[in-house]
Amino acid sequence: MAPIPALFVQSSSSIRIMDVRKTLSDQFEEYGVDISAPVLDRCHDICLQYAVDAEELVESWMAFSVSNNLHEVTLDTLAQMERKEFAKRNSKDVPTPKGLSKQNPKSSSVVVYNASKDPGLEDNILSAYCTTPKRSRAEKRCAELTTPEQYGTKKQTTAGRSPRMAFSPASFSPTVGTPSSKYCTRTNAGQTVTEWGSLPPGATWKTEGSIPGLRVASYAGHGQPTLPAEARYMYERLTTKACVLNDVVDWLGKEICLKHGLDEPDHLKKLHSEPFIGIGHICCDANGRLNPSSVLLEGARGHPSFGISVPLKLTSVSSYALFPGQVVAVEGTNPTGESLVAQRVLCDAPLPLPSEPLKLSTANGPLNVVVASGPFTQSDTMTYQPLEDLIMYVQEHQPHVLILVGPFLDALHPQVTDGLLAQSFNEIFENIVDTLMRPLASCHTEVVLIPSSRDVNHQPVYPTPPYILRKSYPHLHLLPDPALLDVNGIIFGITATDVLMHIGREEVCNPPQGHDRLGRLASHLLNQRSMYPLYPPPEDLNVDLEMWDDHTHLPVTPHILILPSDFRYFLKSVGGAFIVNPERLAKGSAGGTFVRMNIKPVLSEDRSLVNSICAQVVRI
């Protein structure tokens, strides 16, 4: 075959270039925009450089000009649009995720470590991360005007998955799947750091068998509603929020007065030379931290205080512990009508323990429970070694109930915030749950998952709806945060939010170094009948007040209250309830702790389980 004359090739290329220029001119003319020859030349160059067709370029300009209030196309305004709209399309300008080194300029491949061998999953990752996407017809048409070398296909390479990396997600960095050396070299695994009670002689932590008819469900006593997974949030109005806070002050303030036999409350700013009773909730007179001289008492909007606030003088009160949002009844005087001089501050109205009989007897007891709280992986890796070791413990000891409290995929994890993960957050979370449940399929252990507002794959709101999974598991229970869990009549109150730390940062107390601070912080929840009595919350916690009003108030005092916190682990008895802080399963780059409980049948009429519980905090 005779070679095609070079003149013919050059003429064909020139015809295509002329077609692009004519299309650009026609498109601008349709929008009533006049452009000069130099601007038309530059538009043509942009089409070639970024593989966009004339229609897309003109539409991009129109959107850019409206957004930036531009009225004519010049070389300067075109350069502005190019930098903002098209420069990011150039493969040379794609930013490298933090923590990754730049790829070899001669190679256009992106390395994905620990990737799944599922072809469908690889295709999804290939199309989503730093690879050449499928181009539209217009892009292909404009690509014909460029050299093929500019559009080389990038290939994805994968690294193999080691036996100890079942939880590890696909990532753009080998550090994500690299085991933590500090965790691997620990020498205190299995050490008991604190305990409550003792096991009966000859008993061990290994469960002999399942409990027939074991019932694990959300507590439904007193008509307590359960937060649904599809709950809608942040649709509240300011008037609704005000009504919610007002109602809590009104009913809880009256309950406190009733418990202590106090007189009817009166207006907070009314002149009183003799002691009287005022109710309200604690506020701060500024945006800073509460202190003894900045305490305000704000009354309910209805009778008798009509929503007014008054400074609260505490110099005559020998002992108090106050925090914003706390509902109190104050006995004192108001000699000037401007400030309330307190003599007593009362804040406790705890509820009784559940009256329902326990379905735990010597024939089917004791009940073994394991509790662990996230994060479940160290801050320098995503291998989830602590969670994997906990599963091995559960397989060996087979407790009746395993309670895992989020976050599972922490939004604050450095490798999450640096964008090093090559899978969607939902895929990673569902892989964690699947890898967790598969080895426990042959066990009789019931698994309970509590979400956290810090889960990057979940709703960032408190109260937090239950997790949503595409796959179901026979022994898996998904509850909201906070949750009331009923296990054969034993009521567990559980939250993933660090309410102890939040109250502790805002609390003001006298004497300053009060006895048993952690026990006092936990008692606020029981005294205020709420799993989260603090208001306003910290800025990093999004609280929906309508959901808060419906799903955080306690209908009863739980037998066991699980309050994971960054405070040091502890086991305490407060007001007849057993308080558990398991701390975290992973702390920084090291391992943390979990709690195991042995709950013996109650042989007396005492409703409290405090004397029937043996518990230990154990290092993972």
TrEMBL record:
Instruction: Give a single Pfam family match.
Output: DNA_pol_E_B
* UniProt keyword terms in alphabetical order: DNA replication, Nucleus
Span of domain DNA polymerase alpha subunit B OB: 244-346
The chain positions of domain DNA polymerase alpha subunit B N-terminal read 23-88
GO terms assigned for molecular function: DNA binding
Q: Does the keyword Nucleus apply?
A: yes
Domain DNA polymerase alpha/delta/epsilon subunit B intervals: 369-571
Task: Report the subcellular localization.
Answer: Nucleus
Q: Which PANTHER family match?
A: DNA POLYMERASE 2 ALPHA 70 KDA SUBUNIT, DNA POLYMERASE ALPHA SUBUNIT B
Give the protein's biological function.
Answer: Accessory subunit of the DNA polymerase alpha complex (also known as the alpha DNA polymerase-primase complex) which plays an essential role in the initiation of DNA synthesis.
Family the UniProt entry places it in: Belongs to the DNA polymerase alpha subunit B family.
Annotated protein name in UniProt:
DNA polymerase alpha subunit B
What is the species of this protein? Answer: Frankliniella occidentalis (Western flower thrips)
